[in-house]
Design a protein that fits this description.
Blueprint (H helix, E strand, L loop, with lengths): L2 H13 L7 E4 L5 H9 L6 E4 L2 H9 L13 E6 L3 E2 L5 E2 L6 H10 E9 L11 E5 L4 H8 L2 E3 L10 E5 L6 H9 L4 E4 L1 E2 L6 E6 L2 E6 L4
Parallel strand pairs: 1-2, 1-3, 3-6, 6-12
Antiparallel strand pairs: 4-5, 5-11, 7-9, 7-10, 8-9, 12-13
Helix pairs in contact: 1-2
Bound molecules: ribulose-5-phosphate.
Ribulose-5-phosphate (5RP) binds next to helix 4.
Amino acid sequence: MDVVKEKQAAAEAAALLVEDGMRLGLGTGSTVAFLLPALARRHLDIRCVATSVRTEEAARDLGIAVGPFSDVDRLDLAIDGADQVAPDGWLVKGGGAAHTREKLVAITAERFVVIADSTKLVDRLHGPIPLELLEFGLASTLRRLGTVTRRAVPLSPDGGVIADYTGPVGDPATLAALLEGTPGVVGHGLFPPGMVSTVLVGRGREVETLRFAVH
Ligand code: 5RP
């Protein structure tokens, strides 16, 4: 299995879903890195927002128009990678520490399409679950969360501390609710199936389409 080729195949299939005039959300990561040149080659008239400075710079270098997200209230489509994809459509994202912005972009889009190589398919979600935490009160938040490790990466562009929850995942909805109810937690990398329209999975030379909810 060539994981790199699978990422590329999934990303190129997703690029074909983009149409002229669309407002598009661009994710972050090595799979999205294949999406950007595939999009640029299509010379479409699109307006994009990016989930990270890395993606924004790479897209601009390829001639893709990227603007600020602060004044965009709707997107037609968002395309992003994932670290884990469960059979029921739950995702873990944030391996690249961009999960808070990625969730905001995904929820703004009419369709959220995930691109992944086949190693990302799992039977059950497992840790680590990426977190973004407020620096204010950090020691208190870490103590209350318990099994969390701070990641040795810079603060997020929004000033958040990147960390990983390493305890048991169990039911993802229960863990997501617990994290969302914990003061000091800005965001977490659990994405519910209701947010995910389609997952394009590279499998050998093929791209498999998994369909989930449309929001
Ligand atoms: C970044 C992410 C990425 O989409 C996820 O980590 C997958 O990355 P890659 O495409 O490099 O495997 O969530 O925060």
